[in-house]
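Milestone 3.1: sequence recovery, worked example.
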């Protein structure tokens, strides 16, 4: 039976399964089991536990296994000399690893296949053994390969988040611009869209947003859908080796060499490289004389990596097989040597064979997202952030992307916000459902009340209209902290002081009304009543740092600003990695950084925990926060003593250290050196338009900076002469905010600049 894979909108996948169950009968549709296996790191930890070895000891051995896909213990022993040395010298390690090797790859636990569904002609229990999962769902006891061998129809119903993003983006475009987009009927040969891919600014574009893929797109400069299809197929372990050859062929067709003329029409679209399974099928048909059916058998053998079958077919391909009706290459005038070379190339390709139709589907979705991002960037980014609303780190990353695109992010708003991220002109309004401790039903009730009875006028109006909708004090408080009431009269500090009294007052009034009681206030006019209303106290507003801290607390990200934004340039110059590089990738489960790598991060100290070692020495665990997220940093006693003075709360620091990775956890950094932002030397640049302006103003300038003493150098730039003059060390200043503001006021902001002298190791 064929293997059929279909991607659906992430939110509607269950609808498809329910539909299939209704159509064919619930008893005939079941999901497929998978067996989790004992992988290299996991099996060492499990065996170590059974052998009653200390956790730290076993953990240190497990960490020596490289963080790679499909890594095995044997491969790890070859790759890591330290692990191999311990294996050869320590009998305990040898026993642990030998036992682990025997168990490696064996089933460990069962779970449900992410997408696999089997549809039977009769009740499933008559055909396959079934089991009940932990959540009560029914699954098969056979895996998908056995299901296929039995001849049952296996279908993969995949929930693809990107399809949800496309749907939501199209809906937002319709709502904000009144434009109806049929995403299947867009121009798939739009040169502007392909040009946007060539810039490498592909954040949010399906399959093309990883760092490596961005660089590849810059090199490839795709000009049509065929290039994108090839790009997706090539950017994987194995085919990546052919990327230089592919790009060279694309840029210079004269460099392409074909082993025989018959290959040219087959490999010309991919510039002489074998990229797809379909090309292999065409080669064995056109050169070896295979039938369509037989060529598919070769393709299957390659995709399943059946080495024996492929070796057997070598002789048939080169010399033919009269009994089986295969002419072979030799009968078509292709020399034995050339035919053998072509078959060797196909055998190499078998290691990473890729299906063009699969890549083409992905390329179409990639192009659709790129199209929406190019023509409707605000709507697309809003839909994209809605899709990752439960992942603050990813939201923070996309907020940075939005700002680089000139799209401003507005805080959530009780009168304009929606449950997801919404569009307001050239801005994106933060989603109300992103506010912590405020459930989706509350947000739906707020939006419904607003749509039916108009916008909320003030805090009291909101509380009185929503008090019977199960909205509690915690929800109100988090609305305030998130800035959702900023459009109402008053400040966040005023709201925070008054909301409790207003709620109590309204609840009391409602109770009195229910009891049929009247107060004196019921007898006076509306104007007189207003005089006795609870007024917002005159307490001003919180400082900016506290406002930002509140946003971080209830939204998981900073919205109206960031404590680092004024020093963003310095931060970018001083780091080798961001905190996002330490986070596990959603698809691969592997972060960007590698275990043992040297890395420098920068940010503010969001949290600091002190621990005492067995020797009563102090060590620290820091939470370092940058513009994209946070990462844990471990500081051992020796370094803690050295750098303790720099570890102040909300202090801004750079930390150089060594990456530490654990299985299925975000990475950490082991501290080696700490540098405060304030320690980084600066240069104060002052521009004069002409030499005359310089000669007229230099004495005044020297007088203006004479009061400021520090270690920051001063550089004068005379624009018309393109000359630089560095003042002597005796004229060094403290290039702080006060001096910068004073000079900007006198000489103009365009003529004053502060740059940092950052030296990376």
């Amino acid at each position: 039976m064929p293997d059929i894979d279909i991607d659906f909108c992430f939110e509607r996948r269950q609808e498809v399964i329910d539909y299939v169950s209704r159509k064919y009968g619930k008893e005939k549709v079941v999901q497929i089991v998978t067996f989790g296996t004992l992988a290299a790191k996991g099996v060492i930890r499990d065996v170590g536990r059974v052998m009653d070895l200390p956790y730290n000891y076993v953990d240190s051995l497990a960490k020596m296994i490289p963080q790679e896909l499909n890594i095995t213990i044997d491969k790890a022993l070859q790759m890591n000399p330290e692990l191999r040395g311990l294996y050869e010298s320590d009998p305990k390690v040898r026993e642990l690893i030998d036992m682990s090797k025997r168990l490696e790859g064996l089933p460990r636990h069962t779970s449900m296949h992410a997408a696999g569904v089997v549809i039977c002609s009769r009740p499933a229990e008559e055909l396959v053994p079934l089991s009940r999962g932990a959540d009560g769902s029914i699954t098969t006891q056979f895996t998908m390969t056995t299901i296929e061998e039995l001849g049952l129809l296996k279908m993969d119903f995949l929930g693809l988040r990107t399809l949800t993003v496309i749907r939501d983006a199209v809906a937002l475009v319709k709502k904000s611009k009144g434009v109806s987009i049929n995403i299947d009927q867009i121009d798939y040969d739009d040169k502007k869209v392909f040009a946007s891919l060539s810039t490498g600014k592909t954040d949010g574009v399906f399959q093309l947003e990883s760092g490596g893929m961005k660089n590849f797109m810059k090199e490839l400069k795709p000009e049509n859908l065929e290039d994108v299809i090839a790009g997706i197929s090539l950017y994987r372990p194995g085919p990546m080796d052919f990327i230089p050859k592919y790009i060279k062929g694309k840029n210079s067709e004269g460099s392409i060499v074909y082993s025989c003329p018959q290959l040219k029409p087959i490999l010309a679209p991919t510039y002489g490289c074998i990229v797809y399974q379909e090309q292999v099928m065409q080669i064995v048909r056109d050169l070896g004389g295979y039938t369509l059916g037989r060529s598919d058998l070769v393709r299957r053998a390659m995709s399943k990596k059946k080495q024996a079958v492929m070796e057997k077919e070598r002789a048939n391909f080169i010399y033919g097989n009269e009994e089986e009706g295969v002419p072979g290459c030799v009968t078509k005038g292709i020399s034995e040597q050339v035919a053998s070379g072509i078959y060797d190339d196909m055998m190499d390709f078998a290691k990473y064979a890729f299906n063009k139709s699969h890549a083409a589907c992905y390329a179409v979705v990639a192009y659709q997202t790129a199209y929406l991002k190019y023509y409707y960037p605000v709507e697309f980014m809003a839909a994209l952030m809605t899709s990752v609303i439960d992942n603050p780190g990813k939201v923070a990353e996309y907020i940075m992307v939005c700002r680089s695109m000139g799209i401003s992010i507005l805080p959530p708003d009780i009168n304009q916000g929606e449950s997801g991220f919404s569009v307001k002109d050239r801005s994106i309004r933060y989603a109300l459902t992103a506010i912590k401790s405020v459930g989706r039903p509350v947000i739906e009730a707020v939006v419904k009340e607003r749509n039916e009875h108009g916008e909320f006028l003030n805090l009291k109006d909101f509380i009185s209209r929503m008090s019977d909708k199960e909205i509690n004090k915690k929800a109100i408080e988090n609305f305030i902290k998130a800035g959702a009431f900023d459009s109402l009269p008053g400040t966040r500090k005023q709201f925070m002081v008054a909301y409790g009294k207003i709620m109590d007052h309204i609840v009391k009034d409602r109770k009195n009304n229910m009891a049929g009681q009247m107060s004196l206030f019921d007898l006076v006019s509306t104007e007189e009543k207003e005089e006795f209303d609870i007024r917002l106290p005159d307490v001003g507003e919180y400082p900016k740092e506290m406002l930002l801290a509140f946003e971080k607390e209830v939204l998981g990200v900073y919205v109206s600003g960031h404590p680092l934004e004024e020093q963003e340039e310095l931060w970018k110059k001083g780091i080798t990695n961001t905190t996002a590089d330490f986070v596990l990738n959603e698809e691969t489960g592997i972060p960007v950084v590698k275990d043992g790598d040297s890395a420098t991060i920068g940010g503010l100290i969001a949290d600091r925990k002190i621990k005492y070692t067995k020797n009563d020495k102090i060590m620290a665990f820091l939470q370092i926060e940058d513009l994209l997220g946070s990462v844990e940093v471990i500081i051992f006693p020796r370094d803690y003593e050295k750098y303790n003075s720099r570890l102040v709360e909300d202090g801004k620091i750079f930390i150089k250290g060594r990456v530490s990775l654990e299985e299925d956890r975000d990475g950490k950094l082991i501290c080696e050196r700490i540098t405060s932002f304030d320690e980084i030397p600066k240069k104060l640049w002052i521009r004069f338009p002409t030499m005359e302006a310089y000669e007229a103003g230099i004495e005044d300038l020297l007088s203006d900076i004479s009061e400021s003493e520090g270690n920051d150098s001063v550089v004068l730039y005379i624009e018309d002469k393109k000359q630089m003059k560095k003042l002597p060390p005796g004229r060094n200043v403290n290039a702080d905010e006060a001096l910068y503001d004073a000079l900007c006021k006198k000489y103009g902001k365009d003529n004053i600049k502060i740059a940092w002298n950052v030296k990376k190791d």
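DSSP finds 30 helices and 18 strands in the chain. Residues 620 and 635 are 5 Å apart (CA to CA).
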